[in-house]
Amino acid sequence: MTVTPTADGRRLRPVVALLAAHWESKTEEGWITRQVAGALAWVADVHVITPEGSTAGTSTDSVFTLHRMATPIEPAAELRRDLLIEGLSETGASGDVLGSPELSSLLDQGLVGPWGDASDILSALQPDLAVIAGHQDVGALNAVDRHDPGLPVTLLALGADAESIAFPHFASVFARADTVLAVTESERMAIVEHHGRPDAVRRIGAPLSANPSALSEPNGWVGDTGYLLVLTGVDSEDEEHPEYELSRVLRLSFPDRPVGITHTDAFCAWHGGRLNEGWPIERSSDLARLMAWARITVDLRPGRLFARRCVDSLLYGTPIVVPADSRAREHAQRGRGGLWFENPAELAWCVESLLEPPTHDTISAQGLSYAEEEYGSTDRFVERVAEACGLTPATAPVAVTT
User: Fold this and answer.
1) What's the pLDDT score for residue 10?
2) Which residues pair with residue 340 across a beta bridge?
3) Which residue has the higher pLDDT, 36 or 102?
C-alpha cells in the first residue's frame, strides 16, 4: 500500500479509518471488530469512526483514536431492516421487488443519515485505507465515497445471516470492497457463492486462547465429575422453550452423569436427579472454568457469527455438540472437534457417542489442534488481517482491551 504523506511529509505509518455502527465488545460482531482494529494497529494509525456517543468528539480508546459523531442509529431502524430481509427472503420475492428504489429507501431508512458527518472526519484524516465493519452498512460506504470514491476499502463482512449476505441491496458494498474479511470458512464460502471474487474474500479466524487459570480448580457446583455442560440462552423456568426441552432431554437421558446447565437466571447442577441451583454464569472466566473441566460442551445457542464459546471449549480439549444449522457446525465438522444434531434423538446419540473414551479422546485431540491452528495465535491473526489489507505486519503485538 502506498502511504499518502501529510502536507509536511511526516506521515510514517498508514492511516486506517474503521467505520463501525457500534463500537463495543459484548457481541461477537463487536468483539471481532475490535480485534481487527487491534491487528491493524500493529502497522497503522487506526481511527475509529462511529455514530455512537452522547456528545460528538474525539478521544483515545486503548490504541485507537475514537471519533464519536453522537448521531446513534436507532435499534428500531436496524430491526425494521432485519425483519424486511427475513420476510422477503422467506417469500421468495422477485428481483424487480428486491431491487426497487422504494424497498431500498425503506431498508436504509434511519441507517444512512447518522453517517452524515463521517465524510468531514475522513477529509480531515485523509486515510490510506477505509475498513467498513458490516456488509449492511450502506451508510458507511456512502460516507467513504462522498469523501473519495477511489479510496481503498476493506470490508469486514460480519455475515452472521446467510439471507443478509445474499440480499441484493448489499451487493454494492461487497462490490466496492477491494478485500472482504470473513471469520469462518462457512462465512467465506457464503460470500463467494453470492458475490464471487474468491481471491478477494479472505478468512481471518480470530485471536483466542485458553486461560491456564481455568484449570486450577473446578466449579464447586459440578466439581471434577466428568459432567455434561449445557449452554442455553433461556430462563430456568421457561419450560416451553425448545432449548429448555433439549436440556431436559439430556439430563433425563443420562441420569448417572452430572449435568450442568447455564440459564440466563441461574446455573443448574443436576446430580442423580437432584438439583443444586447457583448464581447465573456471567463472567467469561467462570464459563471458561466450566468448559475446561467438562467432559462435553453442548451449546444449544452458539454465537451466530463464529460461535466463540465453541472455539473456547475446543481450546480446553472439550468436544462440542451443536445444532446442525448453526455456524458452530464448522468447528465440529471441519475442525473434527465434535458432532451436530437436528433433533432430540440425534442430540442424545451425539452425546452418548462422545462419552465413549476412545471416541472422546480422538475428538478432543482433533478439536484442540484445529482450534489452536485456526484461532489460537494472535500472531497468525495479525498476519492474516495485515496481509489481506495490503499492510506489512510488525514484530510485536499491540494489547487490545476486550
Assistant:
1) 59
2) 322
3) 36
**Residue 292: pLDDT band with limits 50, 70, 90:** very high
User: Roughly what angle, to the nearest 10 degrees, separates helices 378-388 and 28-41?
Assistant: 80
Cell numbers describing residue 297: 460442551
- Burial state string for 325-353 with b = 16 or more CB within 10 A and e = fewer than 16: ebbbbbbbeebbbbbbbeeeeebbebbee
The crossing angle, in degrees rounded to 10, of helices 75-91 and 101-108 is: 140
CA neighbor of 165 nearest in space, from 143, 184, 142, 145: 184
Q: Which residues contact 369 (CB under 8 A, 6 or more apart)?
A: none
Give the tens place of pLDDT for each residue, 358-372: 999 999 999 999 999
Q: Residue 330: left if φ>0, alpha if ψ -120 to 50, beta else—which one?
A: alpha
Place of cell 475428538: 363
Q: Which amino acid is at 300?
A: L
- Closest C-alpha among 385, 329, 326, 376 to residue 133: 385
Structure-block grid coordinates of residue 375 = 484461532
Residues 19 and 132: beta-carbon distance below 8 Å: yes
Q: What is the mean pLDDT of the chain?
A: 92
Return d(Cα 380, Cα 207) in angstroms, integer: 8
* Residues in contact with 222: Cβ distance below 8 Å, sequence separation at least 6, in sequence order: 229, 258, 260, 269, 290, 293
* Rounded Cα–Cα distance for residues 385 and 393 (Å): 9
Total length of the chain: 402
Residue 401: per-residue pLDDT: 47
Distance between CA atoms of residues 87 and 102, nearest Å: 16
Q: Looking at residues 33-52, what average pLDDT do you find?
A: 97
Reported as a single tens digit per residue, the pLDDT across 348-359 is: 999 999 999 999
Q: How far is CA 210 from CA 294, 313, 396, in A?
A: 14, 9, 20
